[in-house]
Amino acid sequence: MRNPSNRLSGQFNLCCSVDENLLKSPKKNRYPDPHGGVGGSSSLDYGIQQKHQQQQQQDQQKRRQQLKLELNAKNSTTNGDRSEKRSPVINGTRSRPLEFGQEVAGAVASSEEVDSSGYHSNSQTALVDNRVVTKPVVFREYQNHTQRAIMSSKSRFKERFLPPLPKLEGYEKMEQHYSSPNIAETDDPPGVDRRDSRKSMSFDTVTTANDGDSVISNPVSTDSLARQALMAAHVLHLIPADKARQRNFLHGRLGTTSLLGPSELDKVLPTREITIFVGTWNMNGQSPPKQMNDFVLPTSLEHVPDIIVFGTQESYSERFEWEVTLQETLGPSHILLHSTSLGTLHLAAFIRRDLIWYCSEPEDANLSVRPGTAFRTKGAIAISFSLFGTSFLFVTSHLTAHQQKVKERVSDVKKIIHSLDLPRNLTVKHRNKDVTQNFDSVFWCGDLNFRLSEPRDKLMHWIETTQFPLPAHLPHGFMHTDQLTSVLADGAAFKGFREAKITFPPTYKYDPGTQRFDTSSKQRAPAYTDRILYKFKPLPVTTVHRRISNAAGGKITHPPSPVKCLAYDSVQSIITSDHKPVWALFRSIIRPGVDTIPLAAGLFNREVYLEGMKRRLDSSGSSSSAVCSIQ
């Protein structure tokens, strides 16, 4: 077995180059003489013993000073070129901590203060029984080697079990935006040593100065850069090339790479929901007011809806001007997907501009309930299209007027439902003669001309003594006399349609230009003639809902309603017509679709869009910039 003292002295010689003889403690006799001498020296007198002890103390002091000088010289040579990471100072000289933690004989003890454990406050050594004792410190190099070994094993684990990160083309391109999803795996740039930290590698970003030279900026962590790149790729929807090479050969099915499939739907609409605005207004043939914000963008709206549809009756004769007015009010975020008209009826469908690539080609149909008249004022027009896998039908109509003609209005509704031939290009399973049965969601608005079966005086007194909007938790005082409410309850017309609760005052009939109800000789009673109804097909019970039902202890859970009315109100500030505009806001669930449908492929009314943006800039005035006006 190897002698521990030899191994100890060898380590010390290797680290500090100190003579081994200097480290040996002076020999002592185990049993001291009771007279102050040393055992075994009884033949010497007391004076000789005293002189011998003084000589030993002087030799020991010389050894201490010599060891101290050699240690200081060694440390100054080793650590002279290190300006940042230094060892503790001993008597003005920086010393390097010893590698071993054993007791060393003859070591030096400084004149600095000693803490409670016996070690100097600014040193790694202590003098105990004429011996220099060092703290058990391991060289920093050995610590780095241990960390490197650990991180190397972690790196091998990541390479084996975690997906690889994409590669960056080179550090010379780091001046570009961090939206790049690639991660740097090239050589280290100048001034960067990855060996300092394997846990979180870092590298410097290279930017270009005005003179063309490259400048090294602050180091950026690869973990941070990877996180930023992945987030940017998610926001910008960057498409990997290998994904683009894949084709969807699942004809007529849901493919993972399809344009209308679930993955694309989750990117465009993460919640798989959209908001739909439906507005109706009998314009009485008058030009619209210059300010249309109260109708197009009511103050109660938090965000601009995704789909905005306007149906008008007795419309303004200049169709293009009306559409441009709507486009100018909405701004550049929406485009006119499609519009159609019949006589005095007009229907325009605007949609968020980034959604036009996921719509089917829009279709329209119309029906006049008075085919013998030259000027068609009564009837209906409709626009249909699908967004991803959800089909929509929007209808606006102007039904037969007068208080007593309820049956005629019911007959008009039945003719319209069975005469509109939609859709013509979309595939529909179990096509029905009732056009409202061929779509997932149907929105019907217009001047339906249904009245309140109450005397005018009674209604006027109720309006004058009632504060609007009505409380949502209280029933409407006269809706039980409303003709449309009775028709919906009996199922005589609009089978399956619903209407949100009415809390606003009657929308008909006003003296144009005022807020007064009809004061003409006819003295028409106030009524809710302008209405918005909606209908939807319930969502199928999916595996998710069955699993939720089983988790709930067998309790049946139904899918959420695909359409929900969020707001229903009128616009009292517009006074150009004898009718008040009415609008409703809906939330609709969108399902994935298939790529076999006839796509609109970005089709929209370009002329209306450009003219609307031009007028938007012109109306902003010379004091404001064009960019601010558009945005």
UniProtKB/TrEMBL annotation:
InterPro entries: Endo/exonu/phosph_ase_sf (IPR036691), IPP-5-Phosphatase_Type_IV (IPR053321), IPPc (IPR000300). The lineage of its organism: Eukaryota, Metazoa, Ecdysozoa, Arthropoda, Hexapoda. Pfam families: Exo_endo_phos2. Residues 24-98, 180-205 are annotated as: Disordered. Residues 49-59 have a biased composition (Low complexity). Residues 191-201 have a biased composition (Basic and acidic residues). Residues 272-594 form the Inositol polyphosphate-related phosphatase domain. This is Inositol polyphosphate-related phosphatase domain-containing protein. SMART domains: IPPc.
